[in-house]
Amino acid sequence: MIGLPRPRARWLVIAAAALIALAGAGSAMAASPAATVYTQTNDPAGNRIQALAPSHDAGLALARSYPTGGLGSGDGLGSQGAVVVAHRWLLAVNAGSDELSLFRVRRRGGLTLRDIVPSGGDRPISVTSDGRRAYVVHAGAPAGLAGFAISADGRLTPIAGSARPLSAPAPGPAQVELSGDGGTLVVTEKDTNRIGTYPVAPDGAVGAPAFSPSAGETPFGFAFDPRGRLIVSEAFGGRPGESAVSSYALRAGGGVTPISPAVGTGQTAACWVVVTADGRVAYTTNTGSDSITGYRIAKGGQLSLLDADGVTGRTGDGPTDMALARDGSVLYALNGAEGSVSTFQIGRDGGLDRIGTTGGLPAVAVAGLAVR
Fold it and tell me: Which of 37, 172, 181, 306 could join 190 in a cystine, given CB atoms 3.0 to 4.6 angstroms apart?
């Protein structure tokens, strides 16, 4: 048998060892989140954005904290979208001082505060933005919407004709969100069981709303899928085991039409929703049962449970907001009752593998979750 020349044999051994090491580390590499995650403390003594950066163990670690310049409310906001990232901007509501903060997101995930302005109402709880405009919903009486233009240098200016009321003075709004084409604003109302749609003009002005009844009780968080359909959670007043998720199509003349009405989670208090970028799976956090429920989204928008018992993943105590990594491989869930963030690897079938949990956040008041 003819042996290999020594240098060549040595390099083959080194190469083989490297391949073995890569194979063994493959799962950790796949699970590593390539993103910075942001939430807000909602502290009444001074609201701050907490940045959580990727850690060596494929989870997250608390990195830096940035003052918003405003005040938090010190209590749960009962909303989705208290913090959002839109292109190079991060926006956060200050529910205690009725202000909106705008940060520039730097290359490595750092933040620079560029502007803070009155939010245009009482108790701002949710904000949405396409990078050029931002819209805020207020939960105080009277509840309503307000819009702002975002300049290239990061200044917020009220948009004329963007202030609009909701369906009642105190309807318990949960979220405001712009459609993907920027032509419609949607607001969920928990106390009236209504979903409102508002046309948005090219100049950012907001038209008269149309309100539709929710298919299930207590509509809360929602997300658009890539086809422009709404996936909405329904908390059913927090009654044990009764929560659900519905899908809707936007009507051309305003309002929404149910596609899959009130598909039950089998869990308690479904409140927050995210949809994967490919539009195949939606997730909702169940605050009352410390779990996440996944749904398949059919081409027609119909929903079906990923897991018969409604448990696709187990979280920490009191999960609220969620966010997805940009590449769609990782899901983050904010555990509001314990002040932590759970990180999950998303499988090809939509299943969730919990990687770990990062603590150290203020419990109860912490609100919002966004990823860049």
Answer: 172
In this structure, the number of other CB atoms found within 10 A of the CB of residue 151 comes to 13
Domain hosting residue 353, numbered range: 33-371
CATH of the domain at 206: 2.130.10.10
Residues ≥6 apart with Cβ < 8 Å to 167: 189, 192, 194, 196, 209, 211
Residue 223: beta bridge partners? Answer: 231
Instruction: Please check whether residue 231 is in contact with residue 225, taking contact to mean a CB–CB distance below 8 angstroms.
Output: yes
Residue 187 included in any domain: yes
Query: CA angle, 209 as apex, 73 and 260 as ends, to 5°?
Result: 85
Tell me whether residue 25 is in a domain.
no
* Domain assignment present for 297: yes
In tens, the pLDDT along 315-324 reads: 999 999 999 9
pLDDT at residue 14 tops 60: no
CA distance 352 to 325: 14
Flag whether 156 is in a domain.
Answer: yes
Q: Range with the lowest mean pLDDT among 21-30, 45-54, 137-146, 352-361?
A: 21-30
